[in-house]
Amino acid sequence: MRLPIIPLTLILTLASPSLAQAPTPTAEEHITQAVMLNSNGESLIYKDFFGVGELQAALENFQQALAIFKKYGAKAGEANSLVNIGYVYFRKGEYGKALEYFQSSLDIRRKTRDRQNEWIPLSYIGEVYVNLGQYPQALEYYQPALAIIKELKAANPKDSSYSTSQKMMLADIGAVYFRMGQYTKALDFYQQTWAMQKADDDKIGGIQTLNNIGVIYVNLGNYKQALDSYQQGLANLQECCSNYLGTKAAIINNLASTNFSLGQYKKSLELAEESANIYSRINNDAEKATKQEIKLLYDYLGQNSQALQQAASRANVGDAFGKDSFQFQGRALNMNNIGQIYLSLGKYDQALKLYQQALKIYKENSYKPGIAVTLNNIAKVQSSLGKYPQAIELNQQALAIYQEVGDRTGEGVTISNLGQIYQKQGQQEKASGLYQQALAMHRQVSDKVSEAATLKLLGDILSAQNQPQLAIAFYKQSVNLTESIRQNLRTIPADIQKSYTEAVAERYRRLADLLLKQNRPGEAQQVLDLLKIQEVNDFIGNRRSQPQTTTPVGNSGQRGVNTEPQPSQKLPLQPQEQQISQKYSAIQDQAIALGQELTNLRQTPANARTATQEKRIVELVKLEQTITAEFNKFTKTPAVVALVQQLSANSGQENLSLRQLNSLRDNLRQLNKKAVLLYPVVLDDRLELVVVTADTPPIHRPVPVKPAELNQVINEFRQAIVVPYKDSKVPANKLYNWLIKPIENDLKQANAQAIIYAPDSKLRYIPLAALYDGKNWLIERYIINNITAASLTKLNSKPQASLPTLAAAFTKGDYKVAVGERQEVFSGLQFAKVEVDNLAKTIKGTKILLDNDFSPQVTIPQMNDYKIIHLATHGMLVSGDPESSFILFGNGDRVTLKDIENWSLPNVDLVVLSACQTGLGNQLGNGQEILGLGYQIQLTGAKASIASLWAVSDGGTQALMDGFYNVLKTGNLTKSEALRTAQLALLTGNNQFNHPYYWASFILIGNGL
Questions:
Q1: Pairing with 464, which of 235, 623, 736, 987 sits 20 to 30 Å away (CA)?
Q2: Is residue 659 predicted with pLDDT exceeding 50?
C-alpha cells in the first residue's frame, strides 16, 4: 500500500502551538529537511521492486526524519515517519518491530484526532497480521480502517484518492475471508471491489479482482461462474493491459486447475504449460517442466484418460490475495498444478520433485496456505506409494496450519484426506470418524464439491461394513449434491460437461450397483436414467436444463417441446432414508456449532490465550471426538436400526413410490402387445439386467461378465455385422447369452411379445434384433423398441390411417464436409430418388424435396405440417463430437445434432434418417451420439425416430423402407411392428438381403409400440 505524502503545510500546522504560531527559521528549516528525508525514503521503497540496499537507505532517512519531528513536536510528521519505518521492517519480515512502529503511529493519529490519516496505520497493522496468519486480528484492524475511509469519502466526494483506498481495503478484507475459507463473505467483498473498479474504469484492478472472484467460485463448486470470471479477465487483459504478464500467468494458471477439476486433463496441462512459460520469462527461471516432459505428459494423457478420472476430486486453487497471486505464488501454484497431473498418472517421482520446489517457494515467502496445500499434495504421493505413516505426518502438519489460520475449508479437505489413508489401511472405524469431522466442516463453509466426495467415501465405508441400506442413503446424498453442481454447468461447453460427468460417474454406478445388490432395481433404474440424460446433455451441450412440461401446440410457429414427464434433478429418498438423514443432520449441526466456536478460539495466538480459553479449547476438542463417536452409536441406535430393517424388508418389494411405479406399469399395460422394459447396466465386475413388467415389481439378473470382455465381443460383433459376407453369429450368440438368456424365463412368464430396450454404454452400438440364440435371430421372436430412458418416454402410440409425409433426398452432386479433423466427400445417394418415389407411391400425397430444394431454409419450416419426415441423405453420428455429428441436406448445408434442439415438431409422429452411420474410424465411444439423436428428436416433440447404426447399401435401404411403409400405411400395425415386419421380410425372403448387415442396422428410438 502506497502512503500518501503529507504536505509540509500540514506538518507545520500540526506541530507544537508555539512553533506553529511563531516558527523560528531554524526549526522550519529542520522540519523541511525532515520532510525531504521522508520523501527521499519513500521514493526508494514504495515501488514494486527494490533491493536490500534501498531498504536500508530508506530506513536511515526515516530515522533521521523521526528524530527531527520528535525534537520539534511535529506530531503529524512523527506519525508519518513511524509508519514508514514500520513499513521497512514489514518488508524485511521483522513483523514484531513493524507492529511496534505502526501502533505508535496509530496512537499519535488517535491522540491528535487525525481521522484523515488514522486508517493508514490501521491498514498496515492488519497487513502484518495477515502475514502472521492471524486473520481475525487482521480483520479487527481492516474493518475500522474501511469504516473511516467510507466516512472520509462521504465527506470529500470530489477526492478520488478515498475511492482508491476503499477499493484496496475491500479487496484486502475479501482476501482475509478467502484465507479463512469463508468464501461467501470473500465473494461479497470482491464483488463490491469489482463494482467500484468498473465505475472508476480501473481496468487492471478489475482484471485482478475477476481472477480472485473466479478462485472463490471454484472453491464454492460453481465452475461455470469461475470459468466466466477467468475468461472475462483474460479478454479484458488482452484489450488493455497485455504487458501485465504476471496477471495473465496467474489467470491461466487458475484456468488450468479449474479444468483439472472438471476432468479436462489435456486442456489443464496445456494451460499449465502456457502459464509456466510466462513465469519462466518473468523470472528467467529454469525450474519448469521441459518441453520433452510436457510432450510425454500429453502422450500419456492420450493413452490413460480413464486413469485420470480417478484423480482427486479437488484441484489446487490459487490464493486470491492480491500481489501474492501474481508473484511468487503463481510459480508455486503452477508447479502444484503440473505435479497434480503427474500424480494422477502415477508418475510419483516427477510429482514429488515439483511439489518440493513449490514448497520451497512458499516457505521462503512464509506463505502458510500454500505450504499447507503443498504438504497435502506431497502426502498424496506418499500415500500412493504406500508410505502411510509419512503421509499421515504430512497431513497432520497441513492440518495444524489450517487450524492456526482458521481455514475451515482446508481443515475439512485435509481431514477427509486423512480418512482416505486410514481407509486404504483397512481402518474403517478410524476413517469413518474422520469423514464425520470433515463433513461437518464441508457443510459449515458450503464446500459442496468436497461434501459430495466425502459422502461417497462414507458410503464406501458403510458398504464395506456390510451396512448397505445406510450406504445407499449416503450415496444418494452424494449424487444429489453432484447434481446440484452439474446444474451450474449447463451453459458451459459440452466437452467440459462431459468430462466432469465422466469424473463423477462412479458415484452413480456405485449407487446403482448397491441398489441392485439390495434388490432395489427400480431405484437403480432412476439413478441410471439420471446418468443417461446427463450423458446426452453433455454430448449435445443442451441449453435446456430440462424441457418443461407443456401442452403441445399446433402448427402455430411456437416452439414444440416434449410433453412427457422429465426426470427429477434429485433422487428421491425413501421415507426411512429421510428420517435417517434428519437424525444424522442433527448430529452434524452440533459438530458445526462446536467447530465454529473452536475455530474462533484458535484464532487467538497460543501465547495470548487466557486460561479459560485454553480450557474451553480442550473441552471442545473432546466434544468433537465424542460427536464423532456418536456416529458409530447412531448407526446402532434402535431408531436407526428399525429404519434400516424397514428398508431391508422392502428390498424384496418395489421401493419406487407408488405413483412412479403405477405410471411405469400403466405405460406398459396400455400397449397393444405384452412388453417388458430391459435395462442392461454395465458395472465394474458384472453386467446387471433390470427387467420391468406390467404386473410385477422390477427384477434384476446379474451376469458375470466384466466390461473388458463385454466390449471385446461388442467390437467383434460390430466388425462382423457391418460386412455382408462375414458371419456374425458367434459374437451374436455370446451377446444373446449375456443379455437375453438370463431373463428368458422372465420373458416367458410375462408372455412378452416386445422388448423395450434402454441400452447402456457400448451396448448402444449393437442392434438387439440381431442377437442369435443358436437357432434364430431375436427379431424372429420379439418386437424391439429402443428408448433413451424410461422416464422420458410414453411408450404407446396407436397406428394412424392418415400419414401425411414429407420425403426429402440428396440424389446428386458431391460435397466436402469436415468430420472430426479430416475432410470427407459425400456423394448423392443413387437409390435415394427411387426410395422417395416409392414412398410417394405407397403413401399418397407425399411431398418430395430433392437436392437444392432440400435445403434447411425450405425444409425445416414445413416439417411440423407432416406426420412422417423421411430424410434420405447422409447422417453422421460421431462419438464425443456433437459438432461433427450432422445431417447433410441436399444443397450441401449441414445441420448438427446440437442444432436439432431448435426444431419444433410436436405434430410429427416419426422422423426417419435412412442413411445414418455411427463412429469415426474403428474406435467406439460410449454411444452418446446414438442416445443423443433419439433424445434430441424427442425434445423437438416428435414421438419417435428411425436411424441406422451403420451405413447400408442403397439397395438394401430401399428394400427395407419399401417394406416398412407398405406395412405402416395399412394402419394396422405400430411403427415398431412395421419395422420388424420389414426386417423379417428381408431376413426370410428369397433375396440378396438376408444378412443382418441389411436388415439389422435400423433401430426405432422412442414411442413406437
A1: 623
A2: no
